[in-house]
Structures are given as structure tokens and as C-alpha cells.
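Page 42, continued from yesterday. The earlier attempt failed because a stray header line got pasted into the input along with the sequence. Redoing it now with the clean sequence only.
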Amino acid sequence: MKKSKLFLTLGFTLLLSLVLVACGGGSDSSSDSKSSSKDSGKPSGEQVLNLAESALIPSADSSKADDQVGLNVLNQTNEGLYALDKDGIPAIAGAAEEPKISDDKTVYTFKLREDAKWSNGDPVTANDYVFAWRRAVDPATTATYSYLFDAIKNGSEIVAGEKKPEELGVKAVDDYTLEVTLAKPTTYINSLFAFPTFFPLNEKYVTEKGDKYAQDSDSILYNGPFVLEDWTGTNKKWTYKKNDNYWDKKNVTLKQINVQVVQDSGTSLNLYNTGKIDRALLSAEYAAQNKDNKDYTVVNDSSTFYIKFNQKRDGKATPLANENIRRALALSIDKQAYVDTVLQNGSTPANNLVPPEFTFDPGNKEDYVKESGAHLEYNKKEAQKYWKKGLEELGVDKLELEFTSDDTENAKKSSEFLQNQWQTNLEGLSVSLKSVPFKVRLQNDQDQNYDMSMSGWGPDYQDPSTFLDLFKTDGSQNRMSYSNKDYDQILEDASVTYAADDQKRWDEMVGAEKILLDDDVAIQPLYHRANAYLQQSYIHNLQKNPFGPDYTYKNVYLTK
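This time it went through. C-alpha cells are written below.
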């Protein structure tokens, strides 16, 4: 990855509030654990769903949205060539049929469905994709997710300002035929085609609106299951209403979805208990209190949270540049105790960067995590051995390090747990805690003005590279001066040399995680995220996605 968005985890769950995470939510299954992907009776009662969201909508412009709330909005109101089905697999949506693919796997020709319409009645055409994609890669647009177009011919060169947007490998052969030329064979290209940045835009409408495009719900056209209403651009409430111009409206049961921003877990719980919302996200405290509630459910996520070890600060090497010091710090954390006592929301200890049940060997279908193996598991005795060795190499008998976190109560609890683990298990270590507002911590991360810090990542597409590419030398999300030429070469080989050989490419990426964690201890994976909710039993087919936008509401129905 050349650059990536910084996702604001604005919920009140114990996720070390306001950490750096990519867009993607995701889960180890594509459907909510409370709602079966199979039909559960017939729809009954008023088909109106009431939900709480954790933050305002920063942007509903598909070229610019880079936060989870904005991406979720786009996922309900618009769609691209593909959409994720109930099993989390990209399935044909805006395209009428599977594309014709050239023998070298670089040219995809799509036949678009002729019944797809914009919410103003205009047809959705091939030019709408061409316009949207060129707009996204144009440096003038400053699209955070422009790097995803590296997969498209000339995409990276256009983003770098070396070529013009018109040279992007996308062409409207006619109104309903779209030709896409890739830079190289890309195994996860269908995942990208389902991502909001690849959604179409009506050129005439966007051009007419100019700078006012997508500033409120009345300045957007929609081609998805719902249209957005009652959004002023800054308000805390909005509505999704069924889109009567949607090509597949017969399979959309919900009439309306009412959304309000709720940033406090206690308030959310109260709204749920009084019947004003149908689903409530629970903080650790309320999750523990409600585990026996019949409406309690845990939804797994494909996000991984980890501790960053900054090897260079203010231009000078830190003690964390010592591999044995990093290894000792990593091995001294009891991750099971952390998720059990601090998170209490179903999150699980992470012994890998790539989450479980996210990607699978193209040959034997084995989980990436199983083939990679467990890394950096808690081992107090080994931690102390490496700690002693690291101190000897540094020529000191004690160290003072700083752990930076946000200034929320939840983040402070997590920081205190980690501080206790390190200081209890490693003699001579003193860890000071620095709690700062999110904006300050964000700037500190960008400037590498920290020793240790929490970070997290959710996948943009379904492939191990969405995680592994973060730690390439000088990568935009590296920000800790980690560098290993062998690691870089493996990822380069996986991306280029073996681009057309799925198995060799896969084997290379399995080896990359072992270098990152076992050999170098560049980071310490801490937990794979889960969220605890109270959810009404009359909600069916609420689809949790394994990457990209968190949820899809198209197939939801109620049995009130």
C-alpha cells in the first residue's frame, strides 16, 4: 500500500478508542451471529429499522469517503460492479453477468445491466464507471483510497502525477460494455470491484453540483437499495428509504431505516431498553452485565489490533531498535488476560497479524493463520531471558519507555493493564503512560513521536497483502522505522513475480508474516476485535461483511 486512510474508531466499545485503523470491519463469517443468513419466517409488521451509529457522516462522496460510517452509508445507497453476498463473496451487482477475462488475466470486459437506474431515473452506464474511477485517481481529488487503483493499468503512475487520469486502464466500449485493464493479474480484484471507491458516478450530475456535490443528502444521486434522506451534512440523524428506482427493489423488504448518532454506551443501552433503537453496541462494562440477556450477541471482526514498537524517534535510534528488547516486551503480555479482564466483549487474543478465517490457501483451502502458525505467544520466562540479553546489549540495567494512548477512560484502562504487565514481568523497566487527545496522538504517530503505541487495521480487500503491505520499508502506515529487505522482496515477488501464480504468491505471503513477527518482532499482535451487542430477535439477515463496509442492509427483514 502506498497510503491508506486513518479510520476513526468512534464507538464506545473497548477498542482503545480512536485508534488508527483501516476502513474495513469484517468478521469471521459474513452474517451477524444473531441473525441467520437463512430466512426466519416471513416479514411481518412495519418494516422500519432503528439503529444507532457511532459518529457523524464525514463524507458521502464515494471518491473521498475513508471512514467506516461514510463507507457504510455508501454501501446502502450505491453499488458497483460487484456487491458482497451473504457469504462475504463478491457477486455480480451492477454488472449483468460475470466478465470475460483475457487469457493473461489482465483484461476484464463487463456487460452492464440495462435496468440499473440512478435515483433521478438516468441509466447507469459504462461512462459512469470511467468518470468515477478517473476522478478517484486524479491527484486533485485527494482521494485517500486512490492507492487501490494501483491494480488498474497506469493507476499508480496517475496517482503519482506521472500520467493523466485519462490514461487509466478503464474504457466505455459502449453504453453498457465496460473494459478494465489491470496493471498485472490480481487475485483479489473482485473484492476491489465491490469497494465503494469503485462505485460509479453520474458525470453530468456531479459536474453540475461542483463543490456542492455530496454536501448533503439532496446533492447526491443513488443507484443502490436505499436513498439517503434528512442529512444536512452535519446533523446527528439521517434516514435510509427504499429506492424505488433500484433494479432489484423487489428483494428489498425494509421500507425505512432511521439512524441516530449515539456516542455513549449507557445512552445506547437506555435507547434499546425503551424500544427506540433495535440494536445497541455495548462497552466492556455493559457487555459483562448483559451476557445473560436473551438479546446478547457477539459479532466477530476481521480487524487486528497490535502494539507498534518505534525504532527511531527524533532521528535517533530508540531502545526498541534492539530486537531482544522488542521480543521481551511482546512475550511479556498475557493476551488472554487482556481480552478477559479489559475488553470483555468477545475479542480474542491475536497471535497473527492476518486474522483467522479471512483468507485461505488457493490449493488446500487451509486458513492462512493455520499455515503461518502462532507467533509471539505469552511466555514470561522467555520474555525475561530476552530482556536480560537486550539490556546487556544496550549496556544498561534498566529502561524507561513511554506508551502513548488516547485520553478516553477505556484507552486509559488498556494502557494501565499493559503497563502493569511490562513492569511486573520485566525487572528494571519503567513505563510511563501518555494520554492525549486523538488529534494529538495522530500527529505523534505521523511524526513518530512515541516509543510504543496501539494501532489497528481492518482489511480493505480479501487478501493477506492488505495487512502485510503495511510494513513495507517506508510504507505510509509503517511509521516506526521498521525495514527488512527480505520482507520487502517477498512482498514484491508476491505482487509482481508470482502475480499470475496463485499458489506461489500465497506461499510467499505466508513466509512474510513469519519474518515480520518471528524473526523481527516488528509489532506485537494483541487481539482480533469483536463487538458485543443487544439485538432484537425480530431482525433477520443483517449481513456482517468480512472487509470493506461493516454491514449490508439490503436483505434485512423484520418479524415484529
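Notes: DSSP finds 16 helices and 25 strands in the chain.
Reminder to self: strip header lines before submitting.
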